[in-house]
Amino acid sequence: MADNVLWVQERERERGKVLYFAHDEHVETGLGMLGSPGHPPTGQYRQIRSAGSYLRSALGPDLVVIGTYLGHGEGFGSPDAPAPAVHGMEDLLASISVPQFLVNLHELPTSGPLYEWFTAAHATRSTILRDATDSVISLASYDEIFFISTVTPSFMSRKQ
User: Fold this and answer.
1) Cα separation, 112 vs 83, whole angstroms
2) What separation in angstroms does the CA of 16 have from each of 4, 9, 44?
3) 110 CB contacts (<8 Å, ≥6 apart)?
4) I want to staple 36 with a disulfide (CB 3.0 to 4.6 A). Which of 4, 122, 129, 133 is the partner?
5) What would the pLDDT profile of 101-139 be if each residue is shown by its tens digit?
6) Dihedral over alpha carbons 8, 9, 11, 12 (to 10 degrees)
7) Given 3-state DSSP classes, what are the helix, strand and coil percentages for the chain, each rounded to the nearest 5?
8) In which region does residue 129 sit, left (phi positive, over 0), alpha (psi from -120 to 50) or beta (all else)?
């Protein structure tokens, strides 16, 4: 994945910036951790190096990584609905009671409770396996976080 993005960036850089949009587990620049502090993983793959970590090595500060978190879903059919229960990261972000926002993690204080919270591993909702969780250390993985409290499906009707 990282090689493909670097190829596009090399080819298109004269035209402007490149947007690489992928699941958080692909873009995070820190070492991905399967499981969560309360539910340690079993098996051989406990940590994963994602495309984002390779891109950070290649692009340095020219790479801006935005992690995306969701509160809950409304209007989905039951098999496709995001899980109603949230986890550590989503709980904190939802507690702000703002429908959607972007946080620049580089603007956080460099010490204190908020800094310590974002430098510790916290469980997040995993969209790959229902009822599964992954852990993320936000300051090691993202430059910014985008939060959306309620997601809904979009439908487009076509007249034929």
Assistant:
1) 32
2) 17, 9, 41
3) none
4) 133
5) 999 999 999 999 989 988 888 877 754 444 455 677 888
6) 100
7) 35, 25, 45
8) beta
